[in-house]
Amino acid sequence: MYTMKQVTQETGLSAPTLRYYEKEHLLPPIGRDSNGLRIYDDLSLKSIYFIKALRATDMPIKEIKEYVKLHERGEETLQLRKSLLENHQAKVEEDLKAQALYLKKIKEKIKLYDEYVKNLEVRSE
Does 112 score more than 80 pLDDT? Predict the structure, then answer.
């Protein structure tokens, strides 16, 4: 069992973000201790990390909600969930290709600056 503070430290997500995920029903029901404070279990933590991965790869909250609702319906939705994730995977792969191209352009520019600086040093000697 984990407190809100432990989960925020572990995941890097803020308390308001975790409360939002709970309010939007993206997480399984979160338990409470005798003082009414949230208590997270291993399933909650696993769900939080999965949501974090989806958000970090720009999956909209709307699609995450759709995935969660399908998951709640059980095994009959396995293929739908798989398709949803495959579509997202394809988008992430496209984004990665684009990012790789942008990174290449940045590296090329840095190389040009390195050559320029090197030429300046040679000329000043």
Answer: yes
